[in-house]
């Protein structure tokens, strides 16, 4: 009798049911989304092809480890200089042969130390050594899909280009949020000391205090378990004390540099649709039988954006 | 050049500095806590013996795995019936020889399946088969140390008996919150279907939507990395598909049943002191050089309560 704390709590990767007869139009779906409470599964089952998007191969990194591939979506709308540099670094194989050398429990994993002992002699090649800090950007011109609930860390929260984000109308600024899976550019004390070589991935409770204090460059959309379940480092701040504990990186490549036949076919739920609003509502007020008291609230970082394999034609 | 995303972000286990001359009195500390911004390290360095507490052995579980010991503090103030049952189950060795059979990425690990294949024939012994749901309790009579910031999930948040908690003054109810490390009693669809045999531990982003929907019984105060870094199960909801992937539980015992010489000497920061308020303020507004923009906010579940080995006499 495995008694589950929840029986449908997290959104699994879902193969959308293709309705055989009279699929609802998107307009009908939008109307339904507003009118009747549904479970997350019901919302996703009723989604249409237009509710999903594929990743742009020029903004997608494949991080290949011995145990599998993590997929990172880059965010040029938020950090154009860092993303451009990361593209160059990936193209020139900067991370290949380096390692994940830090796993800090309930916080981050980190990789990309150019001085790593035992690693092949590394240079940043034609990437830039110095970049501007990209902690936030002007909100003007950026489509921002607002969430309904209050947040303690930001005046507003929502999604922009598919990324969880905060916004401050008074300052006219918007920024990516440090949710689970966020990928950032490690830096020293100076705000402009990151160049995208050293990257970290959030593996714990969302460290939102870092928002607007460091440059985020994207997020892991697939394969988080390859990073989040790594043994924790026992040195200060989760650095591995023994180099043998590190996880080697076979390669980090841009999807656009990988032969098309070897690319992932993953689709990600769009965050600017009526279906997404219905998804959010299904997380704000859980409708499956397990829940006795729907919360009437959801935090930005409690919304794990669903992904799926595209349905068979 | 390991560039750290933060150089003092998480609170390490701290050995308090014993000041050689004129240590500040607790009253002086309280005054200081209000008057000047300090880093977390400065707050902990200035803490006095009265700012720390030891665990009550009768409310402490030692969970022994091949790789080490996790320490769970039970919360009889919140879930008296479940805690009493768990004490009985531990005393009678219920979990010994069972396993952790679920590791759901960014959510929970779970253990204690009485029907587990391959495990020794198990019974609940003299424990009760049926308990009342203990999702929340009356707030009257429970000391509640309020946090200053708003929370989207609860009207008020704070700490009670050292546990992160929500409170609703209108309903006169208080409940433990699902933060990282929270230990809960798995149940089926019926609210009163948990009996404390099946337990889960939160290993991901705080699933606060479960608050008031399931009975929490305590929290892991030490050794979370033994649970959080376990490989993720590849079956639905993170169940292991191959029994060989499970993590055997050597034993779960009450500290009070363990010879005194074998007990942990861990101390936990009290949550009802002026030092704790200063700690909270140091997390609301980070004062070390890394931070360019203090958040002026902290969420309940972003406050990892510091622990330490007691200073040498």
TrEMBL record, chains A, B:
PPIase cyclophilin-type domain residues: 68-254
Superkingdom, taxonomy of origin: Bacteria
Enzyme Commission number(s) from the entry: 5.2.1.8
EC primary class: isomerase
UniProt keyword annotation of DNA-binding present: no
GO molecular function: isomerase activity
Bias-annotated ranges (Polar residues): 32-44
Keywords linked to the UniProt accession: Isomerase, Rotamase, Signal
Signal peptide stretch: 1-27
InterPro entries assigned: Cyclophilin-like_dom_sf, Cyclophilin-type_PPIase_dom, E_coli_cyclophilin_A-like
Alphabetical list of Gene3D superfamilies matching this protein: Cyclophilin-like (2.40.100.10)
Sequence segments annotated as region (Disordered): 27-50
Protein name: peptidylprolyl isomerase
Biological classification of the source: Bacteria, Pseudomonadati, Pseudomonadota, Gammaproteobacteria, Lysobacterales
């Amino acid at each position: 009798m495995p008694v589950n704390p929840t029986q449908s709590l997290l959104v699994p990767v879902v193969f959308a049911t293709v309705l055989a007869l009279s699929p609802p139009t998107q307009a009908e779906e939008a109307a339904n989304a507003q009118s009747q409470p549904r479970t997350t599964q019901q919302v996703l089952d009723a989604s249409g092809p237009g509710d999903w998007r594929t990743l742009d191969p020029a903004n997608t990194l494949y991080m290949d480890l011995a145990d599998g591939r993590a997929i990172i979506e880059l965010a040029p709308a938020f950090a154009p200089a860092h993303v451009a540099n990361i593209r160059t670094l990936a193209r020139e194989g900067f991370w290949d042969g380096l390692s994940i050398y830090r796993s800090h429990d309930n916080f981050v994993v980190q990789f990309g130390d150019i001085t790593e002992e035992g690693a092949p002699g590394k240079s940043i090649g034609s990437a830039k050594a110095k970049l501007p800090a990209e902690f936030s950007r002007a909100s003007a011109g950026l489509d921002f899909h607002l969430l309904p609930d209050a947040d303690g860390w930001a005046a507003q929260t929502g999604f922009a280009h598919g990324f969880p984000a905060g916004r401050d109308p008074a300052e006219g600024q918007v920024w990516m949020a440090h949710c689970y899976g966020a990928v950032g550019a490690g830096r020293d004390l100076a705000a402009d000391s990151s160049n995208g070589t050293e990257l970290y991935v959030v593996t714990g409770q969302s460290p939102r205090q870092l928002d607007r204090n460091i440059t985020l460059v994207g997020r892991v959309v697939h394969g988080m378990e390859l990073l989040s379940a790594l043994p924790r480092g026992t040195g200060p701040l989760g650095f591995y004390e023994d180099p043998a504990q590190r996880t080697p990186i076979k390669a980090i490549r841009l999807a656009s540099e990988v032969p098309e036949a070897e690319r992932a076919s993953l689709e990600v739920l769009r965050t600017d649709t009526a279906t997404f609003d219905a998804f959010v509502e299904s997380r704000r007020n859980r409708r499956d039988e397990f829940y006795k008291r729907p919360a009437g609230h959801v935090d930005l970082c409690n919304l794990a954006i669903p992904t799926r394999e595209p349905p068979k034609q």
